Amino acid sequence: MSEIFEKRLRSISESDKPDILCGGLKGLEKESLRVNQTGALSETEHPANLGSALTSKFITTDFSEALLEFITPAVPNTWEVLSFLCDIHQFTYKNINDELLWVSSMPCALDEKREIPLARYGTSNVGKMKTIYRNGLGLRYGRNMQAIAGIHFNYSLPEKFWPIYKLNENNHDSIDIFRSSSYMSMIRNFKRYGWLILYLFGASPALCKSFSPKSVGIPEYDKDTLFQPYGTSLRMSDLGYTSKVQSTINISLNSLEEYVQNLRDAISTPEASYDSFGLLRNNEYQQLSLNKLQIENEYYNPVRPKRVALSGERPTTALERGGIEYVEIRSLDLNVFDPVGINQNTIRFMESFLIYCLLEDSPMMTVADNKETMKNHMDTANFGRDPDLFLSREGKKIGLKEWAQELMEHILKIADLIDQSESCSEYVKSVEAQIELIKDSKATPSARILQELSDSGLSFADYGLSLAENQKNYFSNLIPLNAEKDDLFEKEAQASILKQADAESIEQLPLSAYLDNYFKS
Q: Is the dihedral angle over the CA atoms 183, 363, 314, 341 positive or is it negative?
């Protein structure tokens, strides 16, 4: 344990308000593919009964019409955020007829003769921009990659924490500047230690052969399935969210100012390899630009600093305006063993882990440091359960399990402090549950999936379909949503459709002028 971490932890525990770590806001964004009863990607439009994908607060789409995204409010209690996510699932199943929700992060069997349909958001300029952006992603990275699903964990510490922590640090900056600087420290340490999340919660060790031509060299499980015997999260490996161009982009995490500037530079820097796709074809936009990034969200990173943006406001502008409001963790796979893809133990552990990342010493990161962290992530994604796997810490080899045990000792102290509040409980149990996974890698989600594949004799596609059917049955057997909850989602669906109609009824600028204004803002 570093002296800095020990001092910060002691200052909080000995203060007159040791419960300031309890009650941070937690929100979830969960993606799920709609599939038909044979497990093939749905080719139907976004169901109208779910509302407008452009304006709904709770149910939208990501890359494809078939890739649903469920969004919960940010709430202080783990049970509350999971309950809301469960409610969204129930409402969705009620409105997708006989379709299923694919429960794995890696997609169902994909038909190479049929292109994954892009999500559509209507005729307003903002709606057209969203679809053009997705078309650009498909050109740059392939549409299959965009069918990968995950669950994003959004987190912010309690407001009561910041004045006390600022006082303990003897910091004289404004509270907004201090908060942003502290969150950037958290983000740097998440990059350093985030391989642990892939080991503990990775749930994508196998995939369909139909997924990607990049799968050459991956071991064959059966004639339709590829896998990594010690893999944890192929979603986060070089089969998933990576590209040669993005590997050349260095976005600094040393300060919010550098982060914002580096992102803006990437958005305005031409990329020759994208010229071949063209910007316009038959006067139709093919992508938003010919630059390294079209917009900020294109930069794939396991963690992002975030602030809720105003209407039409760019993410970097929002961060400049008010600083970091929360962090978004993007490295969690869907847990196929949980009906909504995540459970309370995971959320409580993530909260403890992120607070540890905040309080631990967080030196500035060099380009070499960033490469080291990326290799650790990649090695863990592909080989994380290999008992002989070594990672690199400050240029020196260290066994994954040895390093993980060291981190757990520190995270356990955070969990114990959170549990001391009357409003928070079972955080220590959540960390202890993950410690057991370090002792026994066969109990991790990724190992359990491979064992179930072996026991069942099924291909990945058939196994995924059986899981989807089981989970649909689970939600069908739940007590139906009460009238109040059902009404909440019904009204939001109707209101979102009206909002989209209102947006489309306003006279639109020429799309080229709209995009010029957007990128100048």
A: negative
**What is d(CA 433, CA 430) in angstroms, rounded to the nearest whole number?**
5
Residue 113 domain boundaries: 3-520
3-state SS track over 496-507: HHHHHHHHHHCC
Beta-bridged to residue 151, according to DSSP, are 30, 332
CB 259 within 8 A of CB 184: yes
Give 426-462 pLDDT, tens digit per residue. Answer: 999 999 999 999 999 999 999 999 999 999 999 999 9
- Please give the angle made by the CA atoms of 327, 31 and 345, to the nearest 5 degrees: 60
pLDDT higher at 156 or 18: 156
Question: Can you give the pTM of this predicted structure?
Answer: 0.97
Which CATH number is 206's domain given? Answer: 3.30.590.20
- 317, containing H or E segment: helix 315-322
Question: How high is the pLDDT of residue 17?
Answer: 82
Per-residue pLDDT of 275-300, as tens digits, reads 999 999 999 999 999 999 999 999 99
Task: Please spell the DSSP secondary structure of 357-374, one letter per residue.
Answer: HHHS------HHHHHHHH
Task: Count how many domains the chain has.
Answer: 1
Q: Kindly report the length of the chain.
A: 521
- Consecutive H or E run containing 397: strand 396-399
